[in-house]
Amino acid sequence: MQNNTQITSQPIEGVSNQSISFSVKTAAGLIGLSERTLWNLIRSSELPAVHIGTRVLLLREDIEKFLKERADRTGACVRSDISKLTTRRNTHKVGA
Hints:
alpha+beta, Multidrug-efflux Transporter Regulator, Chain: A, Domain 2, three-stranded antiparallel β-sheet
C-alpha cells in the first residue's frame, strides 16, 4: 500500500506562500529557531543572507537547503560532540 500523505504547513499571518525571501524575525518564526540563533548562523556563514541597505533577508531556497543538509532521518544526534557529552552525563547519573 502506497502512502500518499502530504505535509502541508499552516498559513502564517503576513507570509505568502509565494514569498521568496524573509526577514530574520519571520524566518525564525517559520522554522522554529530563535532570532539569535539565525543571526549566529548568518555571522558564521553557515546560513547565507542577502544584505540590501539595512535589511537582511534570507532566501526561501537557502533556508530549505540549510535544513535539508542538516536533516538526520535516523533519529541519531546530529552533533556528535553533544551526543558524547550527553552520554557522559547520563553515565554519571546512572552510577550516582
